[in-house]
Amino acid sequence: MVKKQFQDKKILIVGLGVLGGGVATTKWFLKRGAEITVTDLKSREELKKSICALGNDAKKIKFVLGVHNEEDFKQADLIVVNPAVKILGNKFLETAMRLKKPVTNDLALFLDEVKNPIIAVTGTRGKTTTTNWIAHFLKAHFPKIHASGNSSDEALLALSERFSKDKKTPAVLELSSFQLEIANRATRAPDIAVVTNLYQDHINRHDAIKNYALAKANIYKNQTERQKLILNFDNEWARYFVNQKPKANVYFISLRPLPKNMNGVYVRGNTVVFRDGKKESVVYGEQTLKLLWARGEHNLYNFLNAALASFLAGVSWKEIEKRIATLPDIFLRQEIIIKKKNFIVVNDSAGTSPDAAIAALKRFSREGKIIFITGGTDKQLEFKKLADEIKNTIEPENLFFLNGSATRKLMRELETRHYFRNKKKNTFEDLKDVLLAAHKKMSGTYSHLPIIVLFSPGAASFEKFRNEFDRGEKFGEYSKQIFK
Q1: Domains defined for the chain, CATH in brackets
Q2: Of 110, 122, 238, 94, which is closest to residue 178 (Cα–Cα)?
Q3: Which of 56, 285, 424, 436 is spaced 20 to 30 Å from 159 by Cα?
Q4: Is 234 helix (H, G, I), strand (E, B) or coil?
Q5: 262-265: long-range contacts, CB 8 A cutoff, minimum separation 24
Q6: What is the pLDDT of residues 414-463, one digit of tens each?
Q7: Which residues, 6 or more positions from 216, have their beta carbon under 8 angstroms from its beta carbon?
Q8: Could you tell me the end-to-end alpha-carbon distance of the chain, in angstroms, rounded to an integer?
Q9: What is d(CA 144, CA 66) in angstroms, rounded to the nearest whole number?
């Protein structure tokens, strides 16, 4: 039976949203006896699907839609913020905090509610792959485990109810900076926290990269000396995170030998080495390392993070090695969706930053001639390095743009490098038209040349799609029609 710990408490849910998280949060509080007001700047029509998903529960809720009322924030006993709602500069939330109203989100509630061991992963790049690979390795001990967290498929508070029936299986969570922004308001932190790396991203949300870094740092802010933190020594922001003075035991990963005073797992020559205190041991040899390098440098980093987290959670290096051959490809992360003799199509729609597009180009440029499809919505990011990589890797006639604010920014960078050489830019407004043009370009050649059609937008999707998943699903659907 569910405890009615919020019986008759006035709960204000800020942001019902359209992806299901706000619906799950609302239902969770209703089960616990709360009196709920839902406020969202979207209209009732825009939220129709979410309101329908509440079913008969919608009759028990006060809806304030298309507007926020300051009085609702002042009267609430607890304010629960959807991760999609920007906190910095939000005058309503600033008023609530000034009045010392408790403000939280679904992640902080989850951390306080769930008693299972928690392994959590954040970072700019690689967090989805790392999270899924940790779950893959932990299946050796926990058959029911699966990756969760930053997904619309299963909201965190809905997930918490499943864990209430299974106290042993660890929760393996991917966490975004949006979720982590106020997660330090929880009384508990993950038992093992991983920060894969930090690069410029989401500046449109956080206003400055240091605010973005501080949000990421909340993953370990409440950790104790008995808990563990994994950082990427090769990433320039590792020092910043260390300077935040985490209380947890800190481990590092690196593609080169770590300094003698640091614990962690690293590459030395043709081996992978683990060091913990004065003990140091070679855990993988040349053959295994070669298999890992074949997935690309970025995936070697993902593997080191996932393997170290899994080992610290109790899985042996030998058990991890047995599961390397079956490591899954991750949906919309450099996902090979069509594979023929000398032709592949890669869907990297979840590559929403220039760094992600660079990683995809570096991986696949070794495998054949690339027809590169890129572009989307700007998040106030820099495109200089991506422009350099494109200039070094892609011929202008093999570059296809899906138009958007980020696309135009990238084009300007390429123009300053005299990239186009007076050639026509292949720019399209519709994703299907881009694919038709790309198919026409390579039609009749892939039977005897290794061709890779690589879709890695390096940008957000909001000008033309609901999100990167909607974009990726449409790319997959159109590709199967066009490249059949």
Answers
A1: 10-104 (3.40.50.720), 107-326 (3.40.1190.10), 335-482 (3.90.190.20)
A2: 122
A3: 56
A4: coil
A5: 262/233, 264/230, 264/233, 264/308, 265/304, 265/307, 265/308, 265/311
A6: 999 999 988 889 999 999 999 999 999 886 554 566 899 999 999 999 88
A7: 122, 123, 177, 180, 195, 198, 241
A8: 53
A9: 41
